[in-house]
Amino acid sequence: NPPNLQTGESSSLRPASCRSKGGAPGFKVAILGAAGGIGQPLALLMKMNPLVSVLHLYDVVNAPGVTADISHMNTGAVVRGFLGQPQLENALTGMDLVIIPAGVPRKPGMTRDDLFNINAGIVRTLCEGIAKCCPNAIVNVISNPVNSTVPIAAEVFKKAGTYNPRRLLGVTTLDVVRANTFVAEVMGIDPREVNVPVVGGHAGVTILPLLSQVKPSCSFTSEEISYLTDRIQNGGTEVVEAKAGAGSATLSMAYAASKFADACLRGLRGDADVVECSFVASQVTELPFFATKVRLGRSGAEEIFPLGPLNAFERGGLEKAKKELAESIQKGVSFITK
Ligand code: NAD
Ligand code: LMR
């Protein structure tokens, strides 16, 4: 009996629930854009996550192949594939967490905002499906430009009457991952020991690393601050240029998305003190959305932490970040409300 793509089982087998050991708690996770450069390694990593009991892989192309491949891994999650718009609702029904890496990536010379025209519509359609089929799911938005796609998602959910700001999270983890790596190189220590808060948004000057708050604490020279800020803000462009037309960060992004999704699932499970940076609805500044550290819990982003003390360099960076962010947020809002 060949396996059924959607159930992940052949009809003569017992249902997956009979095979799982001792009814271990697990969450249902969907990846939308699962056959893409980020989607495939992210699917691999989520299939390895013991908190995931069911993994739905949705894409408009190649979902069956990726699903067949991933489903052979002897880890706990049951994998099901969904291909194309007619299967979106089945992909989303019952999900606890939906991760969205669907959309086109940059090529050299492009800004993330240049992706708006294509990706805005993709995110709108997917979020309409979420509002209809799993309105209580936590949503992780990866598709760029994140500074606009998160406001788009919020407006779609508002229109549908399902918006809960705690459950909508823009994924900025890659900025933190990069910052930790680059700062560790300068400090000459293990990157796993470093924690750099990165606030603001996810594009150019809106990416604001708070080097004055690095843990373990360290005082940097002004040359080091300038080098690190520039490298962290342009980390995405560094990869886009190195890939020379073949896309943007996919592997480090899948790692970052899996790290963030795992934090969301640990929060949903009720673990204490799960804290990550994320681009969320916020009152930390006068802007409606802003990335800061958030505490993740059973209902999503349960606590949004303030910026903490900033030095003069960071205060200057914050003003620049807010100016660009305000425009990107408004562009996303208008896409739905205009
Ligand atoms: P990719 O082109 O390799 O993959 C995108 C996938 O989305 C493809 O498989 C495509 O078929 C699918 N897709 C397109 N339209 C769809 C739809 N309507 N429904 C479902 N799936 C659809 O691109 P990638 O490298 O995986 O990047 C994806 C997105 O993530 C880009 O917008 C990129 O800019 C963004 N990104 C964000 C971050 C971040 O830090 N937030 C980091 C890296 C990339
Ligand atoms: C990144 O930071 O790597 C992503 O936002 C992709 C990009 O276009 O840079």
Automatic annotation (TrEMBL):
Annotated residues for binding of substrate = R106, R112, N144, R178
- Catalytic site residues? H202
Enzyme Commission code:
1.1.1.37
Q: Where is this region: Disordered?
A: 1-19
Q: Name one GO molecular function term.
A: L-malate dehydrogenase (NAD+) activity
Binding, NAD(+): G33, A34, A35, G36, G37, I38, G39, D59, N119, I142, S143, N144, M253
| Alphabetical keyword list | Glyoxylate bypass, NAD, Oxidoreductase, Peroxisome, Tricarboxylic acid cycle
Q: What is this protein called?
A: Malate dehydrogenase
